Amino acid sequence: MAIRRGLLTREQLRSSGWRRLRQDIYADASLPVDHGLVIAGAAVTLPASALIAGRSAAWLYSVDQALPDDPVDVLVPCRVSWRTPAGVSVHRQAIPPSDVATLGRRRLTTPARTCVDIARWYETLVAVPLIDAMLATQLVHAADLRTQLAHARGHHLNRARTTLALCDPRAESPPESVLRVRLVLAGVPAPVPQYEVRHQGTFVARVDLGWPASRVAVEYDGVWHGGPAQLARDRRRLNALVAAGWTVIHVTATDLGNLDRVIGQLTAALRKAA
Predict the structure, then answer these.
(1) Which H, E and C letters describe the chain, residue by residue?
(2) What is the tens place of the pLDDT at every residue in 185-242?
């Protein structure tokens, strides 16, 4: 369109000042390359009745877990014909007016519809961190999701029910959500996310995952825990928890690949405290 209007030439579009998003769609090369830029490129060719949905709608709601290479989720009414471009994942389902929202210039699914679609379309370990983060924004609440799910039609509703039952707005990071879900699916009793430990009426620490009745906690240590100053703070915190009678099990990003050791330690600690 810019070429037809004489605003730019093909040679100018091929210069370093422009980034090609897809055929005939370019963006200013100075813009950050994130999922939002990919959404903007896909939105140019969307049918009028289509909505940004799923993980891409979550990104627009500031849950930025989608990567630039991830396909854009688009919800299209069943009978609408559209030649889907590369980099777009099309889902064809009914779209009642109550499921349509607007955010700036974008038409997208409501927060509740977004969460239920994520629970239907994605595997549990991918979906739960996204929905946890959506719940944490307070744009949507657990009661909204139950109502949305009760009126949902189509495929994968059983998977959605299972996934939504595992979600918790208290989680503070995707790795923490994944860790919690993997422990529960392994048969460990459900923990309390971000539990505040108090001893003799005094605040001690807030732990990532806690089993208060057993005084057992699991802490996820991300990369930022490795600095000298943070390490010293972590040791003081750990000493305070131990002095309060708590058993603390630490989990790293490497441990997420194989939680057998962690599950064994955690099960033993819970059993000992019973």
Answers:
(1) CCCCCCCCCHHHHCCCCEEEEECCEEEECCCCCCHHHHHHHHHCCCCCCCEECHHHHHHHCCCCCCCCCCCEEEEECCCCCCCCCCCEEEEECCCCHHHEEEECCEEEECHHHHHHHHHHHCCHHHHHHHHHHHHHCCCCCHHHHHHHHHHCCCCCHHHHHHHHHCCCCCCCCHHHHHHHHHHHHCCCCCCEEEEEEEECCEEEEEEEEEEHHHCEEEEEECHHHHCHHHHHHHHHHHHHHHHCCCEEEEEECCHHHCCHHHHHHHHHHHHHHC
(2) 999 999 999 999 999 999 999 999 999 999 999 999 875 555 556 666 778 889 999 9
